[in-house]
Amino acid sequence: MNTPERSRFVRLRVELVLEIDDEDAVTAAALRRIAGDRDMPDAERVPAQAAVTEDTAEALAQLVDPFDLVSEVPGVELHQASWSSERITYDPDAPDWDLDEDDDDGDEDAG
Asked: What is the pTM of this model?
């Protein structure tokens, strides 16, 4: 019995909409994360601090790490990740925000 070969790689797409109730708390947490990041070169530290101070969405992107989302999942290893954040106008009643709707953009088998 021949079984078709399947890729071991899976693309996991997650879209979150967050409401920020305390911008100062988010910014302060991002600044603490940057200050404590021993792997961040000093040449990147100052621009990162400026970015999170100017834009809470940037501060949030600094705090959300895809590795943290999957690091405790047994049997998986994160190979690549990208993420971004942006300020949006959110209307939960708009059809664009239907989270139950399948995202069919035709590239599920792309690799």
From this structure: 0.70
Q: CA torsion 81→31→87→92, rounded to 10°?
A: 80
**Do 81 and 61 contact (CB within 8 A), yes or no?**
no
**Confidence check: pLDDT of 107 > 50:** no
The 8-class DSSP code of residue 70 comes to H
Q: What is the DSSP string of 5-69?
A: ---S------------S-HHHHHHHHHHHHHH-TTS-HHHHHHHHHHHHH-HHHHHHHH--HHHH
CB distance 17 to 88 below 8 Å: yes
